[in-house]
Amino acid sequence: MKRRLSIFILLVCASSCSALADNWARFRGPNGTGISNGDTSRVPLKWSDKENLKWKTELPGPGSSSPIVWGDRVYVTCYTGYGDGSGGGSPGDVKRHLIALTRKDGKVLWSKVIAAEAAIEDPYKSFVTRHGYASNTPVTDGERIYCFFGKPGVFAFDWDGKPLWQQSVYKLESSRRWGSASSPILHAGKVIVKAGDEALTVYAFDAQSGKKLWEIEDKALDQNYGTPVLHRVDENRSDLILAVNGKMSGIDPATGKSRWFSKMGLTGGLTSSPLVFGDHVVLLGGFPKTKGTAFKLGMTGDVSDTAPLWENSKVKTYLTTPVYHDGYLYYIREEGIACCADPLTGKLIYAERIEGAASGSTGKGNPFYASPVLVNGHLVVVSRTAGTFIIEAKPKYKLVRVNKVDGDKSRFQGTPAVGDGQIFLRSDDAVYCFGGVE
Question: Which of the four, 344, 354, 374, 419, has the lowest number of CB atoms within 10 Å?
Fold first, then answer.
C-alpha cells in the first residue's frame, strides 16, 4: 500500500513539474531566454489560418505585448480609445485591457480595463505610433497577474480578475516621450519594474500587498526600454542584471543594492533586453551607438577591467533580443537580417538578409519588432506583416519556410509564447493558438 501511495505521489509530482515547466509566465518565457523549459516536440513549425490552427480570439484593440501562459489560462493586454486606428480621441481616452482566455479554446473568461490619466499620458506620435500603449508584457506566479501599464502604474489581479492592488510609478516626463516598453518580472515574492520612461527608476513591490520595498533612481535609465533578467550565482545568491546607458550592474534583488558593476560603451538608448547564458550576459545594442557587448557574471565591486568580454559594432540589434543555442547566439536585426555570432568572442558567424521580410516593413523600413524564440532547433521569427519566418538554429543560415495568416492584415508585434505542444501569436487584431498532432 505504501509503495502504491509513493508511486502515486511521484506521478502527481511529475505531472505538476511537467505542467510548471510548460508555463510561459513572462516576456520571452523562462528568465527571458526565449526558450521553453518543457518539451516542445509537438509544437508545430508550420501553420496558417487553415493549418494547425487550434483557435483564434479577436481582441478589442491593438498591442505589442506578448501573450503569457500558465496552466489552462492565456493572458494578453491591448488598448482602445486613442491611437487604436478608430480615429479621434486624445491621450486621456486611452484604455488598457487585461484579457484572460482559456487555453483549450480561446474563450474570453474575463476582461479588465484600466483608464489613462490624461495629464501624464504620452501623445500618439513619433515612436509611440510604432508600438502603441500596450507594449509591456504581464507576468504571473500562477496566483496573480501583474501588469505594468506605463504611466498609469503597476496593477495586480487575482486569478478571477479581481483587482488586488495598484502602485503609481510616475515621477516625471521622459526626455523623448516615446512610450513605455519594459515588462515586469518576479523574484522571491517581489514584482520588479523598470520604469525608465516614467521615473528613471527601478522599483520592487511586495507581490501580495503591493508595498514598495526598494527603488533605484538613475538618470542613465533615460531612453531605456529593455526588460531585466536574473542570474543565479549559487544556491544563496541571485543577481538582478540591469543594463543602463554606459553601465551593466548586478543588483541584490532583496535590497536593491549593487553587488557589481561594469562600465560599457553602449549609450544613448537601450531597447533590447540582456540575455543570460551560463555565467555570462550579452546585450546587443543601444541607439545611436549600436553594438553588442558581453560580460562575465558573479563578481563583486567595480569589475570594469575584468568583466567585459568584448564589444563589437558588427554584432548588434536595436529592438530585438537574441536567443542562445548550442554555443551560438542568434538574433534578428530590425531591418530584416538574420545573424549568428560566437557569444564568448563576439565574432560574427553570418549576417544574411531574410528574403521576403521587406514586405513587412513599417516605420522607416523595419519589418521586425518581436524577438525570436527557439522551437525544436529552429528560430521562430515573427515579422510585422510579412509572416513568421522559420530559420534553422545552426551556424549556417537556412530559411525553412514562412508561415502566414492570410486573413489578418494587422501588425504582428508581440513575441510568441510556447508550451505544451502549442505556440501562441498575437496581432493587433487577435490571439492565435497553433498546435500540432496530439
Answer: 344
Local structure of 2: helix, strand or coil: helix
DSSP β-bridge partners for residue 312: 292
Q: What does the block give as the cell for 13?
A: 509530482
Report the 10 Å Cβ neighbour count for 262.
20
Residues 6+ apart with CB under 8 A from 213: 190, 204, 205, 206, 256
Q: How many residues does the chain have?
A: 438
User: In angstroms, rounded to a whole number, what is the distance separating the alpha carbons of residues 316 and 235?
Assistant: 33
Grid cell for residue 83: 491611437
Buried b (16+ CB within 10 A) or exposed e, 206-221: ebeebeebbebebebb
β-pair type (258-263, 301-302): parallel
Separation between Cα atoms, residue 413 and residue 362, nearest integer Å = 11
> Could you list the pLDDT tens digit for every one of the 438 residues in the chain?
433 433 333 333 333 344 455 899 999 999 999 999 999 999 999 999 999 999 999 999 999 999 999 999 999 999 999 999 998 899 999 999 999 999 999 999 999 999 998 778 999 998 899 999 999 999 999 999 999 999 999 999 999 999 999 999 998 877 778 889 999 999 999 999 999 989 999 999 999 999 999 999 999 998 889 999 999 999 999 999 999 999 999 999 999 999 999 999 888 788 899 999 999 999 998 777 788 999 999 999 999 999 999 999 999 998 899 999 999 999 999 999 999 999 999 999 999 999 999 865 554 568 999 999 999 999 999 999 999 999 999 999 999 999 999 999 999 999 999 999 999 999 999 999 999 765
